[in-house]
Write a structure and sequence with these properties.
With about 190 residues, the chain is α+β, with helices and mostly antiparallel strands. About 30% of the residues lie in helices and about 25% in strands.
Amino acid sequence: MARFSPLEWPVIRQLRTGDRFGRGPAVESPRSKALESRLATADRMVQSVCPFCAVGCGQQVYVKDERVIAIEGDPDSPISRGRLCPKGASSEQLVNNPSRQTTVRYRAPYATDWQDLDRDTAIDMIADRFVQARRDHWRETDAHGRPLRHTLGIASLGGATLDNEENYLIKKLFTAAGAIAIENQARI
């Protein structure tokens, strides 16, 4: 360990460096001078949007060796201006959680076990069931012959993680399919 010198006392360093208020180099220790940002080792930074709510705060996602190492608020975002709420700040834990599901899981009716499905099979199953529900519950007219052209077999409940554009497209899709039970969690 190096021998301590009185020239390294903070007051002496303030006078020697011209740091009158002791807010600059005069108060830096050798340890703090050697510190570097955890983001300095990142291979790249990717801009993204927080997945937790409909606000759409900007995020800077730092990646090293194809793994997310940190997520910070994006100062260029006009929405959040570099700030993140506690949930947004914890996004890195969401991405790197070892318990995170990364495959499509399906449990058949009355089955006790889950099975993995490839994405295309799952999408085809959902589309087939959507079309069948629409076909089975379609109402062209009411009892008096007045046109209805809707179905009560399909409903939509959007989540608060969807932004306005996504909700707009979902509303258009379900309206075009004839659904009338369309709601969003953000409005409830």
